[in-house]
Amino acid sequence: MPSRTPASYSVDLGLILLLVVLVAALTLGGSSLRPYDSPELDPRPELLPLYLLLSLTRLGVTLAISVLLAVPTGYLAAKSAFARRLILPTLDIFQSVPIVGFFPVAVWGFVRLFGGSAFGVELAAVFLIFTSMFWNLAFGVYESLITVPEELRMAADQFGLRGSLRWSHLILPVVVPSLLYNSLVSWANGWFFLIASEIIAVGPARYTLPGLGSYLAQAVTAGRNDLTMLALAVLLATTIGMHLLLWGPLSIWAERFHLEETGDRPRRPRIARILGRSRLVRSASVGIVTPAAQQALRVSGRVLDFLGRHAAGSAAVLFGL
Question: Which overall architecture, per CATH, does domain 37-318 show?
Answer without folding.
Answer: Orthogonal Bundle (1.10)
